Description:
Elements: H1 10-14, H2 23-32, H3 34-39, H4 44-50, H5 53-60, H6 63-79, H7 86-90, E1 98-102, H8 117-132, E2 136-141, E3 149-152, E4 158-161, E5 173-174, E6 184-189, E7 192-203, E8 206-212, H9 220-223, H10 234-254, E9 261-265, H11 272-282, H12 287-297, E10 298-301, E11 312-313, H13 315-321, H14 333-339, E12 341-343, E13 348-351, H15 352-359, E14 362-365, H16 368-377, E15 393-394, H17 401-404, H18 407-416, H19 439-468, H20 472-480, E16 487-492, H21 508-515, E17 522-527, H22 535-548, E18 557-560, H23 565-574, E19 577-580, H24 592-598, E20 603-606, H25 611-614, E21 620-623, H26 632-656, H27 665-681, H28 684-699
Parallel strand pairs: 1-2, 1-9, 2-8, 9-10, 10-14, 14-15, 16-17, 16-19, 17-18, 19-20, 20-21
Antiparallel strand pairs: 3-4, 5-7, 6-7, 7-8, 11-13, 12-13
Helix pairs in contact: 2-6, 8-28, 10-11, 11-12, 19-20, 19-23, 20-22
Amino acid sequence: MMTPERIKRLPEIASDLWWTWNTQARELFRRLDYPLWQQTAHNPVLMLRLVSQEMLNQAAADAKFLATYDSAVASLDAARKARDTWWHRRYPEAHGPIAYFSAEFALHQSLPIYAGGLGVLAGDHCKEASDLGIPLVGVGFMYPQGYFHQIISSEGWQQESYERLNWADAPVERAVTPDGQPCNIAVPLGNRSVLVSVWHVRLGRVKLYLLDTDLEENAPWDRELSARLYGGDRETRIQQEIILGVGGVRALKALGTLPTTWHLNEGHAAFVVLQRIRDMIEEGHSFDDALQEVRRTTVFTTHTPVSAGHDAFPFSLVETHLAGAWGTLGDHREAFLALGHYDNGSGPLFNMTALALRTAGSVNAVSQLHGEVTRRMWGPIWPGVSEDKRPVRAITNGVHVPTWLSWEMMRLFDRYLGPDWRERQDDEALWDKVHEIPDEELWNARLALREYLFTFIRERARRRWRDEQVNAARVVGAGTLLDPSALTIGFARRFTGYKRPELIFQNPDRLLSILNAARRPVQIVFAGKAHPADELGKHHLQQVYRRAIDPKFAGRVAFVDDYDLHVAHFLVQGCDVWLNTPRKPMEASGTSGMKASVNGVPHLSIGDGWWAEGYTGDNGWLIEPREQPSDPDLVDAADADALYALLENDVVPRFHERDKHGMPHRWLAVVRQAISTVTPRFCARRMVKAYAEELYRPTADQTTTV
């Protein structure tokens, strides 16, 4: 199709993921062809490939469309400028980019290079850095096959299906070097060299570079190294992490990017320090001086309070795959390997988190409680240092509000908080104005969001029935019988043992009495994927799915399959309550409850992760049993009992209590408190400002060129 001259920058807007959190840009594509917008799951790159010439010509002659187009173009141009931003005003003398390494980035469903919370946090971090004007450069993997699509068998067993990304439908382009050539680098792996191409993703002021080994010049097995997110065995994983760390540093150098700060988002990226030390030694520095400089300029964020969640490899495997990477660092091979040495009880291994902890000058956990767990968990890294003195600070996670906030709530905020609320979203005093929103307007917004959710679920189930000829039980299990008037509880996250997705079914009879109480109906919507190698997680998923197709639950339980960012938006905006039941203290932070709360969906959770510091007594509910047994089975029973009691005595009655006009005033009081207390304290703006002020700025006081 030929884009008319008057709207010639449409493809440019579509290919910059800044549009995903800009209202004018989103409205632009909705106006262009709304049915196609829905059909393409909100992917404007694909949309522009499919839209008819007639629709484009009509848009170019439509005054309302052109007004939206001009506004979006002006906003995009402003968003790409570094001037007049928070970072520029606060640190006008600052220079040099911050390199942000992560194994996954969740930016939009059209770029499926994410699996879960780590990627969502990384994506939100990058988006907020763009808004604040922080010169962030992201580095990750392209993953041509992305993360898997979830298929649920008739027996409820998760099956994985991988779909190769169509480059023409994704918002990516080839990265080019300063001399205008495609950026390709070589990464040594074992006794061979693997060629890596670099892709560029635009995010307003932020650039994201993605590494890809799927090149004809590589051997077939090397082409598969970057094919899938978290795929393969331990040997595949270490090779991926060498490419991410070593290759990422080399890619930035080839692109002419000289960071002043290097931020490692989880231990997967820790091999960054190997390449940086090697580069400095080749420039004439000693190993000790190079290590000191790396420490001064490296920031490390750990997200995992579970030992098994930290990558650790046998030393023989590390030495095999690093054989070609040492260079002049080879004389200090033993000293470098010692940086990763760690014994968590199963014998010494090369631990990527230990490597990062020992080579980063600034380390942070992702909630206050997680900070305590991390200082205790990694005590051997700092022998002789008391727990309270161990150098791990806490910067609690946050969510990018413009990405996750619904249109309905955004319009209310525009009307009652003022036009500058986006710039002031981390100002707690601003959110007192939420209490000025009339009950009727707030409730109508919540009803609209619930209706969007139910429409989405029904249409999704209808397509499954049409396209896959699934049986009637599976259609019901997908949520077609959900009651629009029932209190709807949402539970959507990765399915794994410590998150206890089955906890609410601990006492089925008691739960059934809650779900089917006369004039006070309740229903539960589940969604989530288990890691392909997590057999226990798949078992939990199967048990939940069987409840969804069990006639005994009569359509009160639903499972929405193939959970991704698109599905997540409907769930965190459209449910009434957000449920979280991790086994404490195994939830580092969690962010889905934050996304729900900013949309007026109160949190109902164990006091773990962010909720341990986010609960105020009136902005949601804390699942806290009277007794704290030590036996895991007794803990589950006690937590389930406390959950049932909250539902029976407060949550359900409060939701269904209405005045003569149908207004649930007591419920809306909790909704307001959820919005007003969670948004400023757990927005990505507050989080990224903390990273900038506490971690990025101090490391940029001196400029490094390696």
